[in-house]
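Exercise (ungraded).
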Amino acid sequence: MVIAKKQINKENLLAQGVQLLMNQGYHGTGLKEILDAVQVPKGSFYNYFPSKESYAAEVIQHYIEPFIQQFDGYLQQPGLDGLSALESYFNELIFGLEAAEFKGGCLLGNLMGEIGDTSELCRKSLQLAVYRYQSLLAVGLKKGQTEGRIRLDKSPEDMAALLVNAWQGAMLRMKIEQSVEPLKKCIKDLLGDYFRL
Amino acid sequence: MVIAKKQINKENLLAQGVQLLMNQGYHGTGLKEILDAVQVPKGSFYNYFPSKESYAAEVIQHYIEPFIQQFDGYLQQPGLDGLSALESYFNELIFGLEAAEFKGGCLLGNLMGEIGDTSELCRKSLQLAVYRYQSLLAVGLKKGQTEGRIRLDKSPEDMAALLVNAWQGAMLRMKIEQSVEPLKKCIKDLLGDYFRL
DNA sequence: GTTAAAAAAACGACCAGTCGTCTTATTTTG
DNA sequence: CAAAATAAGACGACTGGTCGTTTTTTTAAC
């Protein structure tokens, strides 16, 4: 099958884009670098994507999916309450970022800052990705509320928004401090204190 | 005096750099664009700065100064307690960002994401700028503590760090939502609730 | 007239995107 | 069914232009 090969190429392009765009940014990454890495000829790129901008918009969606799956895994785990699921999930993230030596951070945060208000296409894609992510975190927080572990006087959505925002900021701090300490403090402040019943 | 002209040129370059780097990012802004804007010939750039990277590192410091002055103004204002100083300051920021139609956001946040872990020079500059800013916010929080308006069981430094992080995240959200709502919620959650006694 | 600062010109490398060409599928026709 | 016609996909060379930086020339200061 040739159609399969095409899907594989596209998948490879997206996966490589996640890595390169996260580490070097949108304007800091050339198409050639991406194409060389996945051994796709320059001329073929535009058979897969109409433009670099549209490609980046797809990369954004491709990036967030695993995170949603990962947290959803914790959420579905029987015998694990919502608050513990959140804690376990973020601890795993922190562990991974430490192992990766704080490289890259979050593609969403990086691109929001770099092109969040200059590329309409990417802005919409970022909006959707963050919304999906935040909504899922809100589910975990709501579960924690019904289980009596999380305060009830704040809406899950509002708490999720604060959690996402503080986490994004902590990721930026991680990058310049070269340490996961900001991440740990962020989770401790919110999940370990502010959100707690 | 010719030395004065040189200082003016350098100042103009830095001021223009703040605007362009904030709105378009590091890799998204060419030297030519900056130089054209302040009418400095391209060949002259390296009489002012050794490299683009070093220039950006200086732009970062040039960016944060007014914010420090602005908040310090509120802090010095007699009859204004620490918590109110923080609230007034951030409300003024929000007002300004709304008037500017959410453009740019925060140079520090944007550059932390884009080049915070690829340019060592800028990393150090960002580190210093954030540290200075956060320390000043901590002074305001500490003042609020002695005045009995802010909780005492958390250190001013830790609260300032959380405030900076959440604010950075809220700025990113502002850019993609094209709304100051995230900023308002961020300040309300932290200054209006979590930090309060 | 000598020295140092300023600016023009030039540098190779790279940018996103397009070109015509060649190869492979798909469809049409007998 | 097979052969011919057509369309779609793959591809590397190339486009004009811009990148950050360096070299060379011009200008200004003393």
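Further reading is listed at the end of the chapter. For now, observe: Chain B has nine helices and no strands. Chain B touches chain A through 45 residues (CB under 8 Å).
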